[in-house]
Design goal:
Elements lengths: L2 E5 L2 E4 L4 E8 L7 E7 L6 E7 L4 E3 L7 E6 L4 E6 L8 E8 L3 E3 L3 E6 L1
Length: 114
């Protein structure tokens, strides 16, 4: 069973920055991909960014150029650097990790004030 521990959420002003971290533990299997989804109130959960263990990335169009995902494979940790934050980035951000199945973190709140 993979355990994901997220940190780094909080409150930021529009135009500011936050950095999220997510550390995975509890598996000896290769984690093929890690990344982030988010869910705003009243909306469906959506992909934010993902990175495979060979470095390929994928971003939602709304965050391209503002967010950057990175990963430390040795530590099974993924990071999300969020710059130029906008009020519409306000959501609960969920980390995930994929082995033979997909595991989710508990979520961390990001609130961006205008």
């Amino acid at each position: 069973q993979v355990r994901l521990v997220e940190s780094g959420g909080g409150l930021a002003q529009a135009g500011g920055s936050l950095r999220l971290s997510c550390a995975a533990s509890g598996t000896s299997f290769t984690i093929s991909a890690m990344g982030w989804h988010r869910q705003a109130p009243g909306k469906q959960r959506e992909l934010v960014a993902t990175m495979t263990n060979d470095g390929r990335t994928n971003y939602a169009g709304s965050v391209k150029g503002r967010f950057a995902i990175s990963r430390d494979n040795a530590k099974n940790t993924v990071y999300l650097q969020m710059d130029s934050l906008r009020p519409e980035d306000t959501a609960v951000y969920y980390c995930y990790a994929r082995t033979f199945t997909t595991y989710w973190g508990q979520g961390t709140q990001v609130t961006v004030s205008s």
